Amino acid sequence: MSKSGYHDFDSFSGKTRVAFLLSSILPYLLIIYLFIKEEIVFTDMIFIFSILILFSMFSGFLLIRKSSHQLSELARETSTLMEGKKRELVITANADKELNDIAGCFNHLLSQLRDANQEMREQSVQLLSYAKDLSLSHRKAKQEERLRLRLSRYVGKNLVERLLTQNEGELFENERREVTVLFADIRSFTSIAEEMEAEDLVIMLNDFYDRMVDIVFKYSGVLDKFVGDQIVAVFGLLADKGDQSSNAIEAALEMQQATEALMKLRAGEGKQIFSIGIGINTGDAVVGNIGSRNRMDYTVIGDCVNVAARLQKVATGGEIVIGEKTNQKSKRRFPLLKSAKLNLRNRSDPVRCFFVNRKPQSS
Known about the structure:
- By secondary structure, the chain is an alpha+beta fold.
- The chain has helices at residues 12-37, 42-82, 97-155, 157-165, 189-194, 198-218, 244-268, 303-314, 324-329, and strands at 175-186, 221-227, 230-235, 276-291, 296-301, 320-323, 336-342, 351-356.
- Helix 3 packs across helix 4.
């Protein structure tokens, strides 16, 4: 609102001007006029002048008093508003323009503040919802990480990641693919077990398995199962992780080295020692879920698995025996000691195998 809108009588500024005219200027002008016209004597002039001054002052007082009452009303309404008893500022309809404009601007600001407050509340609720979702996500991530760590002790990180990305209730599809299967078995385990306490036997196996499984995972293998003293691992099961045949042979070599290192420690402590034989074979197998709806194994089934198990039985302690296809598929050349042909049950043709030379070749 511009200043030009506050000059009329409805405004406080206009009333102030009228009061000033009534109390100050008008009486003097009237007396001067009468004196010039010589229609009044000096003594009468003083009397009339006094009456006019009193009348003007009283009239001005009434005008100013009305505006002061409106200011007091505005102050009371503002206090009531701040106490939360009202939602907007209301003054009398015939109030001064300035007060009406003040009330209007105040109500406009109040409305904006109320809208801003409502928006802040909505944003606070939304932020609380986001914080809750974030907390749940963090908790879920922590639980998933714990689950991942626990599962990775059994099946390896590759399979764990695939399990966690599966939809709930969804199973891996059964498929036929080429894999390399490794069997590792403790030699003379039955006689060793007869000479040891059960608690000591469990400790020995856990120590042995810890080292072997780490090696399997190192070479992108998946732990299929433990069968008593036997380890079954599969390479090339989940994805193409390089040369699966070479990875399996490298893992077998390191498993034999790790077993010998462990036996040196056990011998130094006066504990029972043992050796392992390893058989490896490559071929097609069915990969998928085997079991019931409540309990399933993700495993491999096929002739190549049976052949790998038979090759493991041929291997004596410290030996690694690989199938012909494993040797052909391996992109890295490994020194071989000898080859042999095995007659397996339910097979008409003999199976050719190779014994890996674990000793480094002299230059």
